[in-house]
Amino acid sequence: MINSTTESSDVKYHLPKRIILVRHGESQGNKDDNAYSITPDYKIPLTTRGIEQANQVGSRILDVVSDHGSSDNWKVYFYVSPYVRTRSTLREIGRAFPRNRVLGVREECRVREQDFGNFQVAERMKVIKETRERFGRFFYRFPEGESAADVYDRVSHFLESLWRDVDMKRHHHEPNDELNLIIISHGLASRVFLMKWFKWTVEQFEYLNNLGNCEFRVMELGAGGEYSLAVHHSDEEMLEWGLSPEMIADQKWRANANRGSLNDHCPWYLDAFFDHLADSNDEIGEDVKSST
User: Fold this and answer.
1) Which of these is catalytic: 26, 108, 113, 146?
2) Which of 24, 173, 186, 233 is catalytic?
3) Fold classification of 18-221 (topology level)
4) What three-state secondary structure class fits 124?
5) Which residues on neighbouring strands pair with residue 105, listed in sequence order?
6) C-alpha distances in angstroms, 208 versus 119, 154, 202, 238, 239?
7) 237 has catalytic annotation
8) What is the pTM of this model?
9) Residue 54: CA atoms inside 13 Å, Cβ hemisphere, count?
10) How far apart are CA 204 and CA 251, in angstroms?
11) pLDDT 10s digits, 163-214
12) Which of 1, 140, 184, 268 is the most exposed place for a label (fewest CB within 10 A)?
């Protein structure tokens, strides 16, 4: 990791300008649940509409990373889930980018879809998903499959590798390049990525809405070296995604915060876990004296 004493300009110099999370286009499984009963999840292909969505979103992402055409030194590096639908989405997105702008691509198994348990019988899965809603989406583990908590663990491991890639300059970009990392994955994997990154609680996760097919989230480097969704996205967008007003306020703080700073006004960092904390050591001392 980058040393905390590094100046802000030097930190930004090393870090990607953006990390963009993209969900795959519409798949046969999104269109018809019965597809999962005859085709392994990882082999589910995109629909014709999904291919069109992926093709269109490539142009939209190009517009973002090029700053609407005003930047001339941007580059992209892709990470992609090994599933057919994510690789096909990458293929279509890639049509929007000139070859000299693409630094590389890596297949990354840790950002794959949540495992729902081999072949999925539609009627049985309906009952299972109803049970998940009662149990809680984060901790419910599918029979023969995974819970969102399991996905969180492997995405956390991926994040550690991502930072090693950045720290060791494995993306092989020039010093003056604006690096954009694009992760083409799945809805749940993208949500737990954001949860891990921004330290959201399990309760906050439960309120998050899934990304639509080929929707994306842009984490952009703010003025002080912190990443924030609020640099690129509006309050209205973040509300639609299920972020609370407090979570949105934190994103706005991050847009200008110095790297490594602690948001003293962020309620779930401390206040959400305690009924009351004394304001100072002096108050603690007075409380002890009064009880003796």
Assistant:
1) 113
2) 24
3) Rossmann fold (3.40.50)
4) helix
5) 78
6) 27, 20, 10, 10, 9
7) no
8) 0.89
9) 25
10) 14
11) 999 998 899 888 889 999 999 999 999 999 999 999 999 999 999 999 999 9
12) 1
Q: How far is CA 137 from CA 14, 120, 123, 166, in A?
A: 37, 18, 19, 32
Smallest CA-to-CA distance from 242 within 284, 283, 190, 281 is with 190
| Two structure tokens written together for 8 | 């802000």
b/e string for 242-255 if b means 16 or more Cβ within 10 A? ebbeebbbbbbbbb
**Residue 168 burial (C-beta neighbours within 10 Å; 0-12, 13-18, 19+):** exposed
Q: Give the pLDDT confidence of 210-239 residue by residue, as tens digits.
A: 999 999 999 999 999 999 999 999 999 999
Nearest to 119 by CA among 27, 30, 23, 42: 42
Known catalytic residue at 68: no
In the block, which residue shows the tokens 């990470």? 79
In the prediction, which pLDDT does 4 show? 42
E strands, the chain, in order? 18-23, 74-80, 102-107, 178-185, 216-221, 227-228
